User: What shape does this take?
Amino acid sequence: MRGIHMKRGLPVLLVLLLAISALLPMTCAAAMNEDSQTNMTENSPKWNNTVSEDTARSVALLKINEIGEIIPGFGDWQDAYVEYSTTYYDLDGIPAAYSCDVIKKEQYIGYILVSATQKNYPVLEFSKGFTPDKDSDLMTQSKDLANSFAKTCKMNVGKAKFLYLGATFYYAEFPLTDSESRKQNRIIIDLTTPSVIDENSLQVSIDQAELTRQQQEKEQEIKELWNVLDTQMNVSDQGMVMESVTGTSGYISGVPTYLWQLGCSPTVSAMVLGYWDGHGYPNFPQEDSLIQELATAMGTTPEGSTWPWDIDDGIDEVCTNHGYSSMDVSDDAWMTFDEVKSEVDAQRPFVISMWSGGTPIGGESAYGDHSVACVGYHDYTEDWVSIHDTWDTQIHNIVYGNWLGAMATWVRP
Amino acid sequence: MKLPENKRTRMVLFLILIAVGVAGIVLITDFLTIGPGYPPTEALQKWFIPQPGHEYGENGSVIEKRTIYDDIVLVGEIEEGSPPPFPDLSRYCSYATYADSGAGERYLVVNWYFNTTAAHSQAEKELCQYLQASGNLSSAELTLPTEPEPSQDDPGSRPLSIPATKFESDRSSGYFMVVEKPLTSEHDDYFIVYFGVVGPAALSDHTAALEGLMLRSYPFHGARPLTPCP
Assistant: This one.
């Protein structure tokens, strides 16, 4: 079924988003209450889905080969091995993730973060960089902050425990003890800034709520991913030859990569029209002028923000101004992965505008509210979309659905 | 004149309703607006460095196109940090080396990024003192067409004149430019950018090649030379 066009879908979307935003704190609060009442025993529901360090290492080993095979720039991860590095916890002290160092020829070449619970996606992050707790400068600053704080209340700082509260949200929790080494309190430092965190602000963080939402809506998908992994690891354990990555991919060649100018929406729209400029619609101006025209037509603010339902109108106006009034430009607030595949298979790049977009695979920063140009897909054990994101000239991948909401703007001749 | 009690209550309720409505609209506006999708610091620290293109190959694998233009090819990777012979001005710095596969020359592009005007001003002073001590400084004017392939029909494609600071030394010679808030005037971004040739060379012989690299960089609108040393 085709998606509902934005013009009709907008009121529904507004209501839905408002409802979600209103429910988030409540959902989170409910989750917190439930957590606080849970007795942390081996028999509690929380522990039934726990992933052991050994399992995490097996998942990491399996996934780095898969990543090396299909992710551009990660080819050297094939035939590498992994070593367990760190356990990260949630705010209640329950393991949330394990990081494993990726090693090749005795050299560190990156890390992969595996969920410590089967209630979340198996692979949470991977990168050729370092987790913040491995950065000695950041750690020194964090310890200094904790010590300064402890001094003000005449306490001592204990050994840090690391927290992972969602993509790129890394924290260090330092216990505060009195003169007799009894734990009295704790202080939490944001490792990426570093800065002291008000614990109350973490309790209602949108990422915690987003996690809860994902767990509810994507429980089945997550379960299937873990089942696939179980099968793959059993095959591996029995000494059988591992099957290569199976699935389908689609891609569009010839979509230009432009760096951010005037706003993400006009920049990625210019990439889409730049593609058509080289495919039978040669009247469009070049990069800078095209982005400027699009920014004006879609009413992008001086800060670079754009009303999402103005994106299709802006593209349409620019197409008409250059003699292509037949170009069919429309918004779709209910984009499905099947639609992504069929659009890419038809060789038509399009704009994806996401709300609270997550971190691209192998990336360091979450997208937030951002427009990207879709140029491909991977339909493997996870569904990925391949994108140009305006931040560099590379092709990135993001897990389909790694956002709070997303809208497609189709551009069809 | 005093309003009856129920009328006053209704008016208060009406005003509260208006306030809630306005707050709701503001919330929806903020919540639904897309963008700006501003590049993160790790992207900005290599913003003016000409990057390799990426394109799908026939089998769907991604191919890195390291040729920037003509015979100019990216050598190695875009590295973090300040390269020799230049001082470490910012923690957000990257550089890349390019080779002219025909002539054999090597070119160096350095991008120092600052997110505060104070850090940028201080760095400019430090750099100026360093450059004065290690080479010759003078003024220069570079000329770039506004598009890589200028169109005769497009009045917007007139050449862009970029005032720069020329630096000449035995280790590297090239052009320094300062670009302030090039993405949007609303965001504090400051860049010091260097396009130069590696090793001793007559800079005038390489200006065209460096202009070619600059053309494949981010637009240099509003660029200026380094502030003269105090």
Remarks:
- The longest strand of chain B covers residues 72-80.
- Chain B touches chain A at residues 27-28, 31-40, 42-43, 46-47, 51-56, 60-62, 64, 146-149, 151, 154, 156-157, 183-187, 218-219 (CB under 8 Å).
- The first helix of chain B runs from residue 5 to 32.
- The helical segments of chain B are 5-32, 41-44, 117-134, 207-215.
